[in-house]
Design brief:
Strands 3-2-1-4-5-6-7 form a seven-stranded parallel β-sheet, sandwiched between helices. It starts with 9 loop residues before the first strand and ends in a 6-residue tail after the last strand. The protein is an alpha/beta fold. About 45% of the residues lie in helices and about 15% in strands. The chain contains eight helices and seven strands; from the N terminus they run βαβαβαβαβαβαααβ. It has helices at about 20-30, 40-50, 65-80, 100-125, 155-180, 195-205, 215-220, 230-245; strands spanning about 10-15, 35-40, 55-60, 85, 135-140, 180-190, 255. Helix 1 (about 20-30) crosses helix 8 (about 230-245), helix 3 packs parallel to helix 4 and helix 4 runs parallel beside helix 5 (about 155-180). The chain has one domain (about 10-190, about 230-255): NAD(P)-binding Rossmann-like Domain (Rossmann fold).
């Protein structure tokens, strides 16, 4: 676990009910932050929050502008402020381009691109001078190694996660230009054996791209110089670093956390 000190800071983590988001919320709390978990999965999210000292839960569909306004306002009211936003929530639909379903592509665009945009929007409004908090802060967006490599079966996901990278850089530029005092960075996680990660392996095999889910996982490991899949802790510790003062001059950056897969 990271030793970076986040004592006194308040964090909102989207998609925090399970998987990477839950690990990030846990790591932030272990580093001293008070955490609000946001997710559409109310029961699971409340259970996860109950297991993290001092954590709260707010139900949030990240594609809904009004729900974002409410979630940020509740976070500020219940935690006493907002210093850190982790835009982690996302969806992935595996499909070949030749079989692309418009509704599936729209869903990925809405969640991965619109949802991240709205998160940045409301974080800026709260953190900038004159906002509900007004002390600056940091936003960490979760992109993917899919934004840096060409892996078959995930064209829509790759496109939307590439957009998260661009959003990050433009947001950092706007924050600096307008004096918001908010750093904005993103990470590119490699494949992690969460529910979403293993679903990808099963579905790419189902499309005939690999002989089996195990073969799909093996292909990823073969492309990874570190020789293994990622772990949720690998991603969570980097998020703690980016949320801490140790990264105070890191801004507008995309940090690969992929064992070298996307190099």
């Amino acid at each position: 676990m990271s030793g970076f000190d986040l004592t006194g800071r308040r964090a909102l983590v989207t998609g925090g009910a399970r998987g990477l988001g839950a690990a990030m919320a846990t790591a932030l709390a272990a580093a001293g932050a008070t955490v609000m978990i946001a997710d559409v999965l109310k029961d699971v999210g409340e259970q996860t929050a109950a297991g993290i000292p001092g954590a709260g839960f707010v139900e949030l569909d990240i594609t809904d502008d009004v729900q974002w306004e409410t979630a940020v306002a509740r976070t500020v009211a219940e935690l006493g402020g907002l210093d850190i936003l982790i835009n982690n929530a996302g969806v992935e639909v595996t499909q070949l381009i030749v079989d692309a379903e418009p509704d599936d592509v729209r869903r990925m665009l809405e969640v991965n691109v619109l949802g991240t945009t709205l998160g940045i929007k409301h974080a800026f409004r709260a953190m900038r001078p004159g906002g509900a908090v007004g002390n600056g802060g940091t936003v960490i967006n979760v992109s993917s190694v899919a934004a840096t490599i060409a892996f078959p079966g995930i064209s829509g996901y790759s496109a939307t996660k590439s957009a998260v990278d661009r959003l990050t850089r433009v947001a950092a530029a706007e924050s600096g230009k307008l004096g918001y005092g908010v750093r904005v960075n993103c990470i590119y996680p490699g494949l992690v054996p969460t529910d979403m990660g293993m679903k990808l392996a099963v579905e790419t095999a189902g499309l005939g791209l690999f002989e089996s889910p195990e073969a799909a996982v093996g292909a990823v490991v073969e492309l990874t110089p570190s020789g293994r899949l990622g772990a949720v802790e690998d991603m969570a510790d980097v998020v703690v670093f980016l949320a801490s003062d140790a990264s105070r001059f890191v801004n507008g950056a995309g940090l690969p956390v992929d064992g070298g897969m996307g190099m």
